[in-house]
Design a protein that fits this description.
15 strands, 653 residues, Rossmann fold, single chain, Substrate Binding Domain Of Dnak, Chain:A, Domain 2, binds iron/sulfur cluster, binds FE(4)-NI(1)-S(5) cluster, 5-stranded parallel sheet, 3 domains, 26 helices, alpha/beta
Length: 653
Amino acid sequence: MAKPTTVIRPEDITICETTQQMIAKARRDGVELFFDRAEAIKPCPIGASSACCKHCSMGPCRISPSDPYGKVGICGATIDTISARNFGRMVAAGTAAHTDHGMAMLDLFRGVIEGTVTDFAIKDHIKLFEVAESLDIETEARPILEVARDVYEALEKTYTQVEGEIPLVKRVPKKTLETWRKEGLVPRGAMREIMEMMHRSAMGVDQDYENITKQISRTALADGWGGSMVSTDISDILFGTPAPREVTVDMGVLKEDQVNIIVHGHEPILLEAMMVSADAPSIKEMAKEAGAKGINLVGMCCSGLDVLSRHGIPHAGNFSSTEAALVTGAVDAMTVDVQCIKQDLHKVAQCYDTTFITTNYRAKIEGALHIELDEHDPMKCTDEIIIKGIMRFKNRSKEIEIPKKTARGIHGFSHEYIKYMLGGSFRGGYEPLNDNIINGRIRGVAGVVGCTNPRSKQDFSHVELVKELIKNDVLVVQTGCSQMALAKAGLTSPGASALAGPGLAEVCETVGIPPILGLGACVDNSRILMAVAEMVKTGGLGDAIADLPVAGCAPEWMSEKAIAIGQYFVASGVYTVFGHTFPVTDDTRFTRLLFGGLEAKGLGSWGFADSPHEMARLMIAHIDKKRKELGIDKSRERVLMDMSDRRALAANE
Ligand code: NFS
Ligand code: SF4
C-alpha cells in the first residue's frame, strides 16, 4: 500500500481524539487512509461548481465558473440548465437511496404479514395503529394483521403511485400542502418522480432551470414525506419506536478481551439479526472456548444509530472514523450492508487481518468476502459472520491499540417522545414546546444533521455550531453522523444544559432532557418533518412550516443523500444551511433561485456558510426573522461561547 505522503497533524484533520490516535497509528503502520487521499486529490474547481456537463458524447462541456455566461455547451445548454440538471441528478440519487432502503423495509414488512418471514414480527402495535390512523385506515376492533395489510398497501403507493398525491401528504400542514399544489410539487410515487427527474435531466429534454427545479423539489419531497418516512415508520413498527436511553459511544467501546464485531451501513435488519445471533447460547459458548469474555457488538454510522436508539448498542463513531476503527487491530469482523461504505475499508481491513464482509446483494466490494443476508433466514448469515469473528479473535496476531476514550449520553428521541416528555402521558402534545417558543424561553428549533467529510475538520463544525445554537436558546435536534459528533463530544447528556442559554436550560432542566436531542439515523430526518408538522398543527406559530422559527444545517455534508434531504427541507419551508462547499456556480440564476427565489414562492431557502459561527449567525438570524413575523420577538443579543462556558462543560463531563 502506498505510503501516506501527507504531514498534516492528526489534530488538524479531526477533533475526534480517538480518530487522531488511530491516524497516528496508521501512519506508523504505513497504512493509507481516506484523509491522506483527500490531501493528495484536489477537487476539480469546475466540477465543484457544477459547471460541467457529461450527459452526452458531444461533450463533456465545461463552463468557466468565473465567467458562467461566457459560453454555453455544444447543444446550447446554459450554466443554469447544466447545474440544475446536475443538482437534480444528485437529488434523484439521494432519493433513490432512501426510498430503496424504505422499500427493503416494506419487503420485510410484507414478508412478516404474509408469514414468509418468521424471524421478525410486528413489535410496536401502538405505532402500527398510529400510522394506520394517520392514513385514515380504520383500526377499531380490527385484527392487527388486517390493519397491517392495509397499511402496507397504502405505503406501497409511496413508491408506485403513478398519478395523484401519495397518502403520506395527509401529514403535511394544510397551508404548506396548498403551496405545493399551487406550485405543482405534490409528489406521486417515488419511482415515478425519480424516473422523471432522470428523464428530464437527460440531453435535450428540460432546458428551463425553473421547470427543472420544480421536478427537483417534487422528487425530494417524495423522499422526505415518502421513502424516508416509510422507512422510519416500518422500522418502528417492526423493531420498536425508540425511547430515550443512556448509551456509550466512541472507539473506547471496543474491548481487548472480547470478540469485537462492527456493523456499519444503513438498514437496521442486519444489526437486528446480529443481536439475535450474538445472544445465542451456542455462539456465546464458542466465543468462550476461544478465550473471549464475550461478543461485543458495536455499530457505526447510521445502522449503528438505529440500534443505539432502539436497544442501546454502543456506537464506535461516524463516517470519517470507519477506517480508523479498523486501525485499532481489535476489530475481529466488520460487516456492512448499503450506503456510505468506503471501498477502501476492505483494503484497510486486510492490513489488520480483520474479516470484512458485505451482506447485501446490492452492495458488493471487489475482492471482499460476501455472505448474503436473506430475510427468510437471516441468522444463517449473521451466525457465520460471528463465527468468522471468533476465529479471527482466536488467531489475533496484530498489535492492538484501543483508544480509551468513551462518552455517555442520552439518545433515542422521537417526535412521539417529544410530545410525551413535554406534556406527560395524560396531556401529551406540542403545546409546552410551542408555549416555550412563544414566551421566548426557547428561541427556536434547529436540525443539525448529516455527514462528516475529510475536506472539513471532522466533527469540528458540528460541535461548534451546536454549542453556539444552544447557547442562544435554540433547541437542537439531530440525526446521522452529526448526532455522533456531538455524542462523542459529551454533549448529548443533560449536563450539556450548562452550556445552554438560560431559557433553554430552564426548560431542559425542568423536563430532564438534554438541549440536544438525538433522533437517530439519516432516514429519521422524517421525524424532524413530523415534529415541525406537529408544531404547526399545535398552533400559535403560523400556518405553514415556512412560518416556524426553525432552521436546518448539514455543516460537513458529503453524500448525495444530504442534498436530497436539504432539498426536501427547503421545499417543505425550512431554511437550510450547508457548509464547506455547495455544488453550484456563484451568482447564476439557478443559484439565486435556490438561495432566495424558492422562499419568495412560499417554500424555504438554501443558505451556505464556511464557518460554524457564520452558520449559527445565519440560522439564528432566520429564526429571529420568523419570530418577528409572528410577532413574538423580544430584543435579544446573540451571545458567543467564552472560556467560562467551556469550563462549565468540562466540569460537567
Ligand atoms: Ni447520512 Fe448515514 Fe453519515 Fe452522511 Fe452517510 S452514514 S445516511 S449520508 S455519512 S450522515
Ligand atoms: Fe455538452 Fe449539451 Fe452534451 Fe451536456 S448535453 S455534454 S452541455 S452537448
